[in-house]
Structure prediction request, 149 residues.
Amino acid sequence: MPSVSALSRWLQFVAILRVFSVVLGYFYPDTLAANLYNGDSAQVSELQARTFATWTLTSCMLCLLCARNPSVVPIYSATLGSFLIALLHFSIEVFVYKTVSVKSAIQPMVVASISSLWMGAGWNYYTSYVSSAPAVSEETQVTHTDKTD
Prediction:
């Protein structure tokens, strides 16, 4: 199913993008603060950077699980929710707290917006129709029976 494959590839791509933030948060908190929270990087402690990395790693895992089988409603819901939470987080940081510049937030906000819209619009398709079709990872085998009378 092409659309399932497209969503799966997108979610895998997003997970790969997020790994970069995980590495920065765990091992280079000052770089994370300077590059992402550049509005007021003094507010980003090493603990906050690691917490951000842990949340991001959790969302990576959700993306990969959903990419594997998008018809599982709880996983699909949690993945969609993680994109909405990311969008909310960056919106608040940009517009309320001003710890993130629009320039720094544009990439995660675009990814979260596209993903939220795609998954929201495709809810019924991916959670209902797809569940009756073979999973993306399943291989189908065609057998031929020769009937001779």
Observations:
- Residues 2-27 form the longest helix (26 residues).
